[in-house]
Amino acid sequence: MMPTPVDLLIEARWIIPVEPADTTLEHHAVAVHNGRIVAVLPTAEARLRYTAAETVSLPEHILTPGLINLHCHAAMTLMRGLADDLPLMRWLQEAIWPTEARHASTAFVRDGSLLAAAEMLRGGITTCNDMYFYPEATAEAFDRVGLRAVLGITIIEFPSQYASDADDYLHKGLATFDAWRDHPLIRFALAPHAPYTVADATLERIGSLADELELPIHIHIHETAQEVEDSLRTCGQRPITRLETLGLLGPNLIGVHAVHLNDGDIERLALHGCAVAHCPTSNMKLASGAAPVARLLDKGLNVGLGTDGAASNNRLDLFREMQQASLLAKLSTGDATALPAHRALRMATLDGARALGLDHEIGSIATGKAADLCAVHIADPDALPCFHPVSHLIHVLGRHDVSDVWVAGQQRLQGGRLLQITNTELLSTARLWQNRLRQ
Ligand SMILES: CSC[C@H]1O[C@@H](n2cnc3c(O)ncnc32)[C@H](O)[C@@H]1O
Ligand SMILES: [Zn+2]
Question: So where does substrate get bound (predicted)?
Answer without folding.
Answer: 100, 193, 223, 308
